[in-house]
Amino acid sequence: MREERNWISDRLASFGDGIALIADGQQSSFNAIGQAMMSWQALLAHQNIACCTVIINGDYSCAMVGAILALYTRHCVVVPLNRSSSERCAAVARTTGASWIIDADHPGDLQALTTQLPTHELVAGLFDRREAGLILLSSGSSGEPKAILLSLERLFAKYRDAPRSRPRTTAAFLLLDHIGGFNTLLHCLFSGSTLVKLDSRDAVSICRQIAEHRIHLLPATPTFLNMLLWGRAYETYDLSSLELVTYGTETMPESTLAALNEVFPAVRFKQTYGMSELGILSTRSESSDSLWIQIATDDVQVKVVDQILWIKTRTAMLGYLNAPSVIDQEGWLCTGDLVETRGDYFRILGRGESLINVGGLKVLPVEVESRLLSLPFVKDAVVWGRKSPVTGQIVAATVVLEGELDTDDAKRQIMLHCQQGLEDFKVPRHIEFVTGRLHSDRFKKIKVASQ
To answer: Domain 3-157 belongs to what topology?
Structure first.
């Protein structure tokens, strides 16, 4: 197995003094990442850290990346956290059964943990096979965060065996403890691309950094891209280097995608698909302005049952450590995403559980949100189901307005606009206005539960 891992050192060395990472004003070459990996390997060997679960706490840095690679070579299960508090680290350690906590910013500060918990059978299986793993935590929006165990062997093999792609300077928009951020890191490391850590994730700062570092690729969320349109910071900075914007993690409103293509005609927009339980799958968008996508790899199987997408892939999770598995005996995972199909292409309509049932008629929140966002004075909107004694539910909308528009006038314009473009049962009957934001720190819309 040690020989099999030499490909990492060889791959990094092949890119030599090329810039692998720009973070906090420092540039780190691929050679520097390789040196950091070897330094961590020596430290881990000295502490006899191998075949165990390790929390690595930090952010994008040469030390953090080197530590992750070194833990992989030591057959460890890696739990990346984003500069979390000691209380958060302790809680995650209890959930994951971690034996060590490592602060990437302070390599000498290795915290050994004692736990009374037996090693989970899925983790023990990895150790028995001398394979490395990755644990990611769900958001916990619907209860205790789920600890998702993936095989690092399979995730790394995807990049080891893939044809080399053209290197692109890439923004690290998603964090390392997110499957999208972890995937971006691996893609950049093993393709010779430069990864740029963002010093801030507001639209103005990101536009500034795209211009400063001549970034080619921006992975983002639809929510952030809508904010980018509203802020108009793109008018202030030179974004001519930008070639590709990928988006995922939530459903893209059609009106937002249309506006993006109008504002950035030279940029290609590509929808990605993935989830922590699956990894990030290779996709192909029908066109830059289309929401229809195709899984673009032969090693992934797709089926649709009752309009819900099911996927079978080698990179799927091994299971949850603290919840029943959602993968059936044949290896199929129910994504919960509602889709429509057209040949080999499919279009994501939203989460199956987010459907609003108005007297037996189904309403997709994203369809109504797209209509609302096409109004020039609607800055953001979340659509949800409100309980009704007559129809079971009615369509409700929480709206953030731009400027100081009178709310009564705004409500009248919204109703008229929706009546002109939506079927009657899809028109919001309850509209509430709020200030502030409707998204999480990860730039993903916060859904409102039925009330």
So the answer is: Rossmann fold (3.40.50)
